[in-house]
Amino acid sequence: MIKENKALGGIVLKMKSDCSRKTGFLGLVIGLSIWATQGITDPRHGIAMYGDPALPPDFVSLPYAWADAPKGGTVVTGNTGGYDSLNPFILKGTAPWQLRHLTHESLMSRSWDEPLTVYGLLAESIEVDPNRFWVEFTLRAEAQFSDNTPVTVQDVIWSYETLGTKGHPRYHGFHQKLASITATGARTVRLTFKEPSRELALIAGLRPILKKAQYEGVDFANATLDDFPVGSSPYVIDSFTPGRTVSLKRNPDYWGRDLPIRQGTQNFDEIRIEFFGDQSVLFEAFKAGDISFLREFNAERWATLYDFPAVQDGRVVQSEIPHQKPTGMTGFVMNGRHAPFDDIRVRDALLHAFNFEFINDNGTGARQNRITSYFSGSSLAKRDGAADGRVADLLSSFANDLPEGTIEGYTLPRSDGSERNRKNIRKALKLLQEAGFSVDQGVMMTPQGQPFTFEILLRKGNDRDRRITENYRKSLERLGITATVSIVDDAQYNERISKFEFDMTDYRRFASLSPGIEQALYWGSEAADQPGSRNLMGLKSPAMDAMIDTLINADTYEDYQAAARAIDRILAASRFFIPIWNFGVGRIAHDARLNYPDYTPLYGDGSQWMPAVWWYQED
Question: What is the distance between the alpha carbons of residues 561 and 552, in angstroms, rounded to a whole number?
Answer without folding.
Answer: 11
